[in-house]
């Protein structure tokens, strides 16, 4: 693949993850006013027309009955837990800390790929995982600072996203796109809708529009990622997600009076370095049969996001 195509892919990915960062700023704003349940419900509701467009693209013959119901149920549960815990984390923690913890997703995918995909992880990648998890301890600083529900929620969100990704890698080529989208989306919508009556607060038009904006931004950013992975190599495109830590520093300082402290900077650097090492091992060292990290292309926390791999297979 040419250098110009890789630059194009990196540019599209830069724009996509910059949009996701702006998306998370809106989540942070709304989370200061409303319950994450209410935010996630309305964002999912407004994602429905957009996701419907994705579902009708699936011309694969078959029914809506899952071929792997247990995996679909688990994926649906992780969509519910991951979305709710991720939205809560963004509403309660500094942006940079949330991203630092979410950046452990490649490390967690590496761990989960062993039992789920039968992946063999050697000493190099195992060492990168251990070092990355040490980076999380540096960010969270247990013992010197209080570990809040926000920290636990961010870690749970990372675990859920990693689980979704590995499940998609395991069954994504066999299950219909509509099945992979419909059941998790329905689970989020039903669970959040059933809980809404306990937390609902009336919303002015501006806040309702902001929730719609979350849905549109997630959908548009996912489309840009499709273009990024079509243009460039995964090893070039995937690391662009780390640009979000830069936006976290900028948005946090300008909008929320947040500052990057030294432990967060050091911990994030350790986590990012570990993730980049795993990407490099999968891409260039030929140590992975499944390449689960490089094949993780969607950002599962955002309503409106769809499975990017489906569209890449259709090019």
Rg over CA atoms: 19 Å
Mean pLDDT equals 89
Largest beta sheet, briefly?
none
Number of helices: 13
Helix and strand succession?
Answer: HHHHHHHHHHHHH
| Intertermini distance | 16 Å
Dominant shape: globular
**What is the helix fraction of residues, given as a range?**
over 70%
Integer tally of domains: 1
SS strand fraction: under 5%
Structural class: mainly alpha
| Overall strand count | 0
Q: Would you identify the regions where 5 or more consecutive residues have pLDDT less than 50?
A: none
Spell out the key features of this protein.
315 residues, mainly alpha, single chain
What does this structure look like?
With 315 residues, the protein is mostly helical. It has one domain (3-122, 140-260, 289-312). It contains 13 helices and no strands. It has helices spanning 3-31, 36-55, 69-92, 95-102, 105-117, 123-140, 149-171, 177-199, 205-231, 234-237, 243-255, 262-284, 308-312. Helix 1 (3-31) crosses helix 3 (69-92), helix 2 runs antiparallel to helix 8 (177-199) and helix 4 (95-102) packs parallel to helix 12. The longest helix has 29 residues, at 3-31. The protein is globular. It starts with a helix and ends with a helix. The model has no long low-confidence stretch (mean pLDDT 89).
Helices, strands, pairings?
Layout: H1 3-31, H2 36-55, H3 69-92, H4 95-102, H5 105-117, H6 123-140, H7 149-171, H8 177-199, H9 205-231, H10 234-237, H11 243-255, H12 262-284, H13 308-312
Helix pairs in contact: 1-3, 1-9, 1-11, 2-3, 2-8, 2-9, 3-7, 3-8, 4-7, 4-11, 4-12, 5-6, 5-7, 5-12, 6-12
């Amino acid at each position: 693949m040419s250098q110009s195509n890789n630059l194009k892919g990196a540019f599209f990915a830069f724009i996509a993850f910059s949009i996701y960062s702006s998306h998370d700023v809106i989540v942070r704003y709304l989370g200061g006013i409303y319950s994450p349940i209410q935010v996630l419900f309305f964002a999912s509701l407004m994602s429905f027309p957009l996701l419907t467009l994705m579902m009708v693209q699936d011309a694969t013959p078959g029914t809506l009955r899952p071929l792997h119901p247990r995996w679909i149920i688990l994926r649906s549960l992780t969509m519910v837990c991951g979305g709710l815990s991720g939205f809560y984390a963004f509403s309660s923690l500094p942006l940079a800390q949330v991203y630092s913890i979410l950046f452990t997703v490649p490390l967690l995918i590496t761990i989960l790929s062993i039992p789920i995909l039968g992946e063999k992880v050697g000493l190099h990648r195992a060492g990168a995982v251990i070092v990355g998890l040490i980076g999380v301890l540096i960010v969270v600083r247990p013992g010197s600072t209080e570990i809040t529900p926000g920290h636990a929620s961010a870690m749970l969100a990372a675990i859920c996203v990693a689980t979704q990704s590995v499940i998609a890698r395991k069954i994504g080529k066999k299950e219909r796109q509509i099945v992979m989208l419909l059941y998790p989306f329905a689970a989020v919508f039903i669970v959040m809708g059933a809980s809404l009556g306990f937390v609902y607060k009336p919303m002015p038009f501006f806040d309702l529009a902001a929730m719609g904006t979350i849905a549109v931004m997630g959908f548009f950013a996912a489309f840009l990622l499709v273009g990024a992975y079509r243009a460039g190599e995964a090893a070039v495109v995937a690391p662009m997600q780390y640009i979000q830590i830069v936006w976290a520093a900028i948005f946090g300082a300008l909008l929320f009076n947040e500052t990057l402290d030294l432990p967060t900077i050091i911990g994030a650097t350790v986590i990012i370095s570990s993730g980049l090492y795993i990407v490099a091992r999968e891409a260039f060292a030929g140590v992975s049969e499944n390449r689960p990290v490089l094949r993780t292309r969607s950002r599962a926390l955002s309503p409106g996001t769809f499975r990017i791999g489906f569209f890449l297979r259709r090019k």
